[in-house]
Fold each of these.
Amino acid sequence: MSDYHQISISGMLVFIIVLFFGSCQVSEDTVDENGPNPPVNQSQNNQNASNNINLAQVQQAPNQQQSQQFSSARLGTTSNRPEYDTIQPPVPPPARNRIQVALLLDTSNSMDGLIDQAKSQLWKMVNELAKATKEEEAPQIELSLFEYGNDWLSSEAGYIRKVGRLTIDLEWISDKLFKLTTNGGDEYCPWAIRDAAGILDWSDNPNDLKIIFIAGNEPFAQGPVTVRQACERAKEKGIIVNTIHCGGYDEGIRDGWGDLAACTGGKYMNIDQNEKVVHIPTPYDDEVLALNKKLNDTYIGYGSKGSSYKEMQVANDASAGNYSSANTRTRAFYKTKKNYSNTSWDLVDATEKDYDGFMKGVETKELPEEMQKMSKEEQKEYVDQKRTERQELQKELKTLEQKVDAYIVEKRKEMAEGDTKNTLDNVMMDAIRKQAEDKGFKF
């Protein structure tokens, strides 16, 4: 056999091997801790086949199943392509009463206003939820975040990404929300709902409140997953789906945004995504912000997350403040609530129930530098001191919150439009309050 033919055969073998292992890698990357993507009908398979996705495209665009396997190095980022984190927040602890909310936000090109409203009003929403009680106890609030309709995401995954699982770590969710960017694309709402209902760790307790909010502006029933399939998946888990059309009310009805809400006992709403949210300043804002800064100083970071989470806490304050002082003010008030717990990185929260028992499992190198040179007795005294400082600051902030709430009530009476604007926070809270009361929660 000639040298030419030997080289040709060798080259063909190399090509086949590369093709084989490349296919294995794509299959491997499409499974995460939640298992493979839930099965869909044959039309989805036909749709995926027609997309002609190659290996490079899949590697560059992680979906919600792929996000934990992809590193930013593999994403091949360009100047405007977002880099997706690979780490999820901690799994929430068991709780007797829970309010679980998954936000599914359209991040296609036309949705900058929607994302801005979500960023500016997240802490207002969770602060209102934290005022709820059931059986004289505050519920555990868990939040999850999805984005959909973004061309940077994998078409094989329906241009959908699970940004974060259901978690009580709302600082983590806030940080990722502020990093969302818009681009593209095709909005497959039923597919996004089916994924959120299928892969999140929803409570098995029928008395817990489980809600999906999905917001967008294109016709609802796009993509290979049907409204009926999405409805059945949500109803299996006892999830209420509320739909929010970004545009006219009648237009949203014509585009099918009311169908899935009706199917799951949810509410159809509409908003003007470009409406500017009303932020009401108060005479107490400067005092609140000063106390908030002191409150941040009472957090003692420990372990691998300690320093980065302290930095995230301050950064989220700054991001909220970019919208208004009222936004930072609301964040400060939420830090006084039982739901604002940071046991995974803050020693004060982590040692609240059993200081000695917890500290037995913490190595000296995991403590902040200022504590590493202290004796055991000095360490305990230091943590107790920070705990006392925090309790005093929280008490002052709670008093100011009452004054702020009373001031805003009076101010709204003076305003022609008040707080009745058709914005994301208003329609979401109207829905949540009614649905929470149906589950026995009180505000």
Amino acid sequence: MASFKKFLAGTAITAAAVAGGIAVYKKLQENKSNADDDFDDFEDDDFDDDFDDLEIENRNYTVLPSDAVVATEEDAEEDSTTK
């Protein structure tokens, strides 16, 4: 009777492992087919004209001073006020 229980337990564990493997395989196949559909939207889009309306020649830039330059200017102001 004990060997029959071991056989039943082993069969149940093996069946659960096989069922789990099949479920994982099906899930991976489903995700693979969904991932292929995600890129279909970009095949029809032409990105060449996306930046045509930008005025690159008239672009203004802001110069950010570094900490060393700011410290030097503060030292210069202190020197000029103490003299």
Amino acid sequence: MKAAKQPGVRAALLKRNLGIVYSGPMTVWASVFFLAPLLIIVVYSFLKKGLYGGVTPDFSFDAYIALKNPNIAVIAVKTLLISLGSTAITILIALPCGYFMARSKYQTLFLMLIIIPFWTNFLIRVYAWMNILGNNGFLNEFLIQSGLIKNYIHFLYNQNTVVLVLVYMYLPYAILPLYSSIDKFDFSLLEAARDLGATTLQAMFKVLLPNVRSGIYTAFLFTFIPIFGAYAVPLLVGGKNSYMLGNVIADQLTKSRNWPLASAISMVLTLVTTAGVISMLSLQKRDERRLGKSKGGKN
């Protein structure tokens, strides 16, 4: 019996040890390509600017002191407002889309239509919007040919255009987690709510939305984080009033060659996004505990 058990014990120990082998390459990959660059940014943010760019090995808080510049503070607030506004609009559009997909018989087709834009290069999609909204673009030509306007309308190079293109770019990132969450929802609960006297709108807000909060939190993170660090969209379709922190970082690296200041701004972006992730995860865990308690009380 002992001889029979030994091979099983050895196999179990071997599988347990193989877990380290399997996770080892991923750990090394994450350390080299994520932690190491982040550590370099942290170190650079506490060094002094070199005379011709780069850094000098002198410890300094100059980069963080420079963040007190009113211009940087204004751009930071503007970036936060644009990011929150774009994320809110994206989620408001994604919610009915995810609901419609979850109730549709053609879910596979709609999923393909959502994923197809990912097959096209990011910059090509931005330039497509520039061709649509430009002075000689499709929209202006259509309005002039229709007789609705006589002169071109400057659709490009303003904050509204930046928000429009950002919403378009990151809408799939919000639709997919919301669809996944809504698809698991028991729609008979909506019928029960209506049978008890709730209107369709009340059933949506009081029954559906509380049960798909995890999808809303995920959609928020998937859209807010990349929008907050956006660079290409405000550069190509935004004007001077649409400057965001991502553009400031690029200018400090390529034009001013102030690497410590660029690193300090990057650290601010990292801390804000990390705080957002932690807050969303804490809210999600709180909702899960509350839902677990309510189910336990019912049982």
Amino acid sequence: MTHLSTSIGNNPNQRQPPKSTRLRLLRITVSHRRMRRNDLMLGMILAFVAGAINAGGFLAIGHYTSHMTGIVSSIADNLALGIFRLVGSGIALLVSFTLGAACSAILINWARRHARRQQYAYPLALESVLLIAFAGIGAVIPPAAAAPVTAVLLCFVMGLQNATITKISGARIRTTHLTGMITDIGIETGKLAYGLVARRLNHPPIVTDVRKLSILLPIVGMFFLGGLIGALGFKHLGHAFSLPVAALLLAVASPQLRLRPLSPQ
């Protein structure tokens, strides 16, 4: 960043930037003043988190919890087959995801009126606490017995996260499911391919939305990376794999949660 490089260049004896400068990237990530840059940064972080929790959670409880398409389909399938116990489980997961999204909206809208600077930090801090609870439940309760509770908990977490980034980005970025994003990547790739043909045939040009691709591709990549790390993390650490993920979220949220010093009189 310009400010960082300038301050280092003007003071060769300064080996590290001031603490306030070192925290700048984290601070702007959940700042209430939004720009495309911090939307993308936060989207990539949360896509990594969603991928890790989705993949690690599947190994822990046997359910993908970050998207509701499969869960709603399973409710319909089990209802048709008369497996009402599984219908009830699916409805519980669906309701939990919905309540997580509602909780995000409540926290953000309350903060907009009472603590505007923290409006996006509160949901991420809560998500961090819930992931710590997930690790704690897995540590004290046998996995088979913990699975129903942790499945509901992870669906709540994913609903909370998806609603948060949706509100932050004005619905331009989603992080817990990839269907729409990969569809958009396919559309823009098709436009790019057709545009190359159109130029050769002297047809009117087709404009590819490169900016859109520059947002979608990193988010999909981070979701995959998170899934890989989450699966490896659960394989080696069990439920405790969620603790580093919780620490990441808390690190992102904490600069906005810090109390600002009072200005000198």
